[in-house]
Write a structure and sequence with these properties.
By secondary structure, the chain is α/β, with parallel strands linked by helices. The chain folds into 3 domains: 223 residues, HUPs (Rossmann fold), CATH 3.40.50.620; 79 residues, Tyrosyl-Transfer RNA Synthetase, CATH 1.10.240; 81 residues, RNA-binding S4 domain (Structural Genomics Hypothetical 15.5 Kd Protein In mrcA-pckA Intergenic Region, Chain A, Roll), CATH 3.10.290. The protein contains 18 helices and 11 strands. The longest helix is centred in the C-terminal third of the chain and has 32 residues.
Length: 427
């Protein structure tokens, strides 16, 4: 029950099957979450299911991360307005390897543990099933009426584009996954986002139909709420594409900035959702937030926790250094990689290094690269003293673009006013 109680105080149970509390009070549970392998990297939107697998393991239960190498070739229609692009086997395999490395930073796969985490690929069993056998042994347990009632199918059927038979069948494949894990790994729990309840219940029903007996739940499901910000935006989508958990794709600095910029209205919830801090610790942080919100101690705690897991202590240290130096405009103390990481947060453009020999006017150069909308706007900004190059104010609109305006001979950081930044990189 400790696992269930923790999910409750963290407000992470959106819905569940009847009797799940009693189920957890009687046995150690093996539970799984499915992960989509259509990208090489998990993203911040995957943090909630990952952290709930972490919590499952913390209380002595066994977590399974099921990567959908088989179902990923089909695509889940849940939450999708149109059919997704189908990837090749080779692409799926490359993505699986990358995702596995990311999950290992959160879950313990030590063979010495009695409840070591497992990573499984459903392609290993789905590809072995013949269509005839699947229709005979599994398909017969699903009526079309039953499937049409599920929201993920219903919303697509009503659209002009409709839903293909391929995606329509996705529910039966996910249900078969649950059955396979139940029979081969004693897995009796599936967890996922709130949009997965229909698919999870399909699996629970299939397990009961294949194992007739007393009318009790042989398996269970728990779904988490959809995480949205105080402004109503889906978590991770506030700045376009969600930051990834792949250090090669999203730098420690960029991920750090994503969490350090969490609004005060959201940060306490995110500490509940995405960290292992207990209730007393979060209450203490809440008091700090109330007493001195400008310190942003809650946001720092959130960022520190997650960046250390994903990027390690060195990554966290670099992210904090870049943040501090950027805030104080100590650009000369940053390495080339630090500046490139920094530039992920604002627009950048490249120029041939010969541009510094052309004697071009700095203001014209910036206008040509869309830093200003017009020459008149450029002149006005110079007159207002609102232009800074590498932290130094430039007030002369006749300034020439020259080598000494570039850090390390190749980087120029332009600031307009207090918040707009641009990076020029010489090649």
């Amino acid at each position: 029950m400790k696992f269930i109680n923790e999910l409750k105080w963290r407000e992470l149970i959106f819905d569940k099957t009847p009797g799940v509390e009693d189920f957890f009070s009687k046995e150690k549970v093996t539970g799984y979450v499915g992960f989509d392998p259509t990208s090489k990297s998990l993203h911040v939107g995957n943090l909630l299911p990952i952290m709930n697998l972490v919590r499952l393991q913390k209380y002595g239960h066994t977590p399974i991360a099921l990567v959908g190498g088989g179902t990923g070739l089909i695509g889940d229609p849940s939450g999708k307005s149109e059919e997704r692009k189908i990837l090749t086997d080779v692409q799926i395999e490359e993505n699986l390897d990358s995702i596995e490395n990311q999950l290992k930073k959160f879950l313990d796969f030590d063979n010495k543990l009695s409840n070591k985490a497992l990573i499984l690929n459903n392609a290993n069993w789905l590809k072995e099933i013949s269509l005839i056998n699947f229709l005979r042994d599994t398909g017969k347990h699903f009526t079309v009426n039953y499937m049409l009632k599920k929201e993920s199918v219903k919303s697509r059927v009503s659209r002009e584009t409709g839903i293909s038979f391929t995606e329509f069948s996705y529910m039966t494949l996910q249900a078969f996954d649950f059955l396979h894990l139940y029979e081969n790994y004693n897995c009796k729990l599936q967890m996922g986002g709130s949009d997965q309840m229909g698919n999870i219940l399909a699996g629970v029903d299939l397990i009961n139909k294949k194992n007739p007996g007393p009318k009790t739940y042989l398996a269970h499901g728990i779904v988490f709420p959809l995480i949205t910000s105080s402004s109503g935006e889906k978590f991770g989508k506030t700045a376009g594409e969600a930051p990834t958990l792949d250090p090669q794709k999203t730098s420690a600095y960029k991920l750090y900035q994503f969490f350090i910029n969490t609004p005060d209205q959201d940060v306490l919830n995110y500490l509940k959702y995405f960290t292992d801090l207990n209730l007393d610790e979060i209450n203490d942080i809440e008091q700090e937030l109330i007493n001195d919100p400008k310190k942003r101690s809650a946001q720092r705690m959130l960022a520190d926790n997650l960046i250390e897991i994903v990027h390690g202590k060195d990554g966290l240290s670099e992210a904090k250094k870049i943040t501090e130096y950027f805030f104080n405009e100590n650009y000369n103390d940053l390495s080339e990689q630090n500046i490139l990481d920094l530039s992920e947060s604002f627009p950048s453009f490249e120029e041939d290094k010969s541009i510094t020999e052309s004697r071009i006017n700095l203001g014209k150069f910036l206008t040509d690269n869309n830093v200003f909308n017009s020459m008149s706007e450029m002149r006005r900004m110079f007159d207002q003293g609102a232009i800074y190059i590498n932290g130094n104010r430039i007030t002369d609109n006749q300034t020439i673009l020259s080598k000494d305006l570039f850090l390390q001979g190749k980087f120029m950081i332009t600031r307009l006013g207090s918040k707009k930044y641009y990076l020029t990189v010489l090649k």
